[in-house]
């Protein structure tokens, strides 16, 4: 790899993820943005997982969540983990939001 190639590497700080949940209503899939650093591999389930704000969702806690994501803050230990699939990536939060729309 040349030096110019190395200098052009993209760093994607945010991932667009699909939450895969099974429940009484069958398989549901919801999409949101998380910092790349929040994502982890679960050896037991052999799936990617991410801690995420548990429901119920209010305007206030969604705004707090978005602030945490933008700032790439530490996740509270009380948040549950959810299985995910990565469906996109972005260098900035704004770029990730644009890709969701």
Structural account:
The structure is a single chain. With 101 residues, the chain is α+β, with helices and mostly antiparallel strands. It has one domain (14-99). The chain has helices at 3-7, 59-71, 93-100, and strands at residues 14-23, 26-35, 40-42, 47-51, 81-90. It has a five-stranded antiparallel sheet with strand order 2-1-5-4-3. Strand 3 (40-42) and strand 4 form a beta hairpin. Residues 1-7 have low confidence and may be disordered.
What's the structural blueprint in terms of helices and strands?
Blueprint: H1 3-7, E1 14-23, E2 26-35, E3 40-42, E4 47-51, H2 59-71, E5 81-90, H3 93-100
Antiparallel strand pairs: 1-2, 1-5, 3-4, 4-5
Give short descriptive properties of this protein.
about 100 residues; alpha+beta; five-stranded antiparallel sheet; 3 helices; 5 strands; about 40% strand
Low-confidence runs of at least 5 consecutive residues? 1-7
> Sheet with the most strands?
5 strands, antiparallel
Rg over C-alpha atoms, rounded to the nearest angstrom: 15 Å
- In total, the number of domains comes to 1
What is the beta-strand fraction?
35-45%
Reading the helices and strands in chain order gives HEEEEHEH
Mean pLDDT comes to 88
- Number of E-state strands: 5
The total count of helices amounts to 3
Strand order within the widest beta sheet: 2-1-5-4-3
CA-to-CA gap between the ends?
35 Å
Structural class: alpha+beta
Helicity level, as a percent range?
Answer: 25-40%
Write down the overall geometry.
globular
